[in-house]
Automatic annotation (TrEMBL):
This is MFS transporter. It comes from Mobilicoccus caccae. CDD domains: MFS_MMR_MDR_like (cd17321). It is a multi-pass membrane protein. SUPFAM superfamilies: MFS general substrate transporter.
Length: 469
């Protein structure tokens, strides 16, 4: 089916939204299960960071390549292949007997998710136009965002339920059920592919994959190894690898060969600004979820279910903002993301304030109750940032690179989740060992305020560029 063919039955897009939910739900399950995985497998904090980071870094590495494979071999075909892989790898992760095998299973799981995710936006774009396309993109953004938050609640409940003694393994297996639901509806999706048959830049995928893996492994294992020479070498190797990837892409574009990330596209203001916005937002978002799970379970003694349900107001706030984003954007207009960033900064300040108050008064356990209103406010604020991000960025780039730009933003999202856990998450784990854990959480949340300020500045720059055009 050619890319411009309109979709006759919009409800048939539901498998795409289920799959988008599953991809982000998979990351969130790792967050809430982290303390139980550590206890069951004897994993160190660095290894737990790798359990989370192996999924997201592999996801980020293969995302754009997955989009190119869908363009060439058929998007529905890659969608189905990725979902089958998601089912199998969820089962592998659920039965993994050791931490290294779990890390490997999660990495392969990330590759499977990367075959699915780019087909979602590409199929929406290829089969719809105008308001229908905008509504499809907004729905995808909302469901994938809700998946990240809902994983904390659903995953925590499954772990505490301990069905047939499965614990965290039952939560890991639940991913297979969601993938199977999306797979069951895949036959109703239209079969689309690109009219172009460009070659695929495998070399670029390998270079960027090794670079991201080096950064994630170095940042995750560095604190536990007291920043030994080889962890620092991994970080240097990651930075050098990213520079080599950029040069590789520049040479290929200059010589007319296919690229994964054409520098001429990345240099467009909406693209590089959107990438940095995704990096700052999701880096903080992923770290917050991880830190909250560790704090409430390991240090405050909550069960996984209690930990997950204590974020229910956060989830509801996020869902409310996502569901109302059309009305919010009509009210705030082009200022939506900037005002959302201001609300996020205020929410982070309120959360940090409750942490410092609870630590000062010695009422750490009561903090979980005191923080409910601030986290609900924070969830709403982040919903007003996340929901319009992809649609705003993609509306500002030429139609010819819109699909590629969506892939870039999704890549940045996954890379940021891994790097956020490894950096801010690692900082929290280190601080919690030397100061009051609730205070440590407060300091890291306060530090996250920098990401809200950066997001605001980039959203402002993007708005000014759009007004000048």
């Amino acid at each position: 089916m050619p890319e411009h063919t309109p979709l006759d039955a919009p409800p048939r897009l539901w498998p795409l939204y289920v799959a988008g939910f599953a991809a982000t739900y998979t990351f969130s399950i790792g967050n809430v299960a982290a303390p139980d995985i550590a206890a069951d497998l004897g994993a160190t904090p660095g290894e737990i960071s790798l359990v989370l980071g192996s999924f997201t870094s592999a996801f980020a590495t293969v995302l754009v390549l997955g989009g190119r494979l869908g363009d060439r071999f058929g998007r529905r075909r890659m969608f189905v292949l990725g979902l089958v892989g998601g089912i199998l790898t969820a089962i592998l992760a659920a039965v993994a007997p050791t931490t290294p095998l779990l890390i490997a299973a999660r990495g392969i799981q990330g590759i499977a998710a990367a075959l699915v995710m780019p087909q979602i936006l590409a199929t929406i774009q290829a089969t719809s136009t105008g308001i229908r396309r905008a509504r499809g993109i907004a729905t995808f953004s909302a469901t994938s965002g809700v998946g990240t938050a809902a994983g904390q609640v659903i995953g925590g409940s499954l772990i505490s339920a301990d069905i047939a003694g499965t614990g965290w393994r039952g939560a890991a297996a639940s991913i297979a059920v969601i993938c199977a639901l999306a797979l069951a509806g895949a036959r109703w999706l239209p079969a689309t592919r690109s009219d172009r048959r460009d070659a695929i830049d495998i070399g670029g995928a390998v270079i960027v994959g090794l670079a991201l893996a080096s950064l994630v492994f170095g940042l995750s294992l560095g604190p536990g190894q007291h920043w030994s020479w080889w962890t620092l070498a991994l970080l240097v190797g990651g930075v050098v690898g990213l520079a080599a990837f950029w040069r590789h892409q520049s040479v290929r574009e200059r010589t007319g060969r296919p690229t994964l990330a054409p520098p001429s596209v990345v240099r467009l203001t909406p693209v590089w600004a959107g990438l940095l916005m995704a990096l700052t937002f999701f880096g903080g978002f992923g770290a917050f979820m991880y830190e909250y799970s560790v704090l409430t379970q390991r240090h405050l003694g909550l069960t996984p279910a209690a930990s997950g349900f204590s974020l229910l107001l956060f989830v509801l706030g996020f869902v409310l903002a996502s569901a109302s984003i059309g009305h919010i954007m009509r009210w705030w207009g082009a200022l939506t993301m900037e005002r959302g960033a201001c609300l996020q900064l205020l929410g982070l300040v309120l959360v940090a304030g409750t942490c410092f108050f609870a630590s000062h008064t010695g009422s750490g356990a009561a903090w979980v109750w005191w923080v409910q209103a601030p986290v609900a406010f924070l969830g709403f604020a982040q919903g007003t940032q996340f929901a319009p991000l992809v649609s705003t960025v993609m509306s500002e780039v030429p139609h010819s690179v819109a699909g590629l730009t969506g892939g870039f933003v999704s890549t940045a999202q996954q890379a940021a989740l891994a790097l956020g856990v490894a950096t801010l998450g690692g900082l929290f784990v280190s601080l919690a060992d030397v100061i009051d854990p609730v205070a440590a959480f407060g300091w890291v949340v306060a530090a996250q305020g920098v990401t809200a300020v950066v997001f605001w500045g980039l959203a402002r720059r993007l708005r000014h560029e759009a007004q000048q055009d």
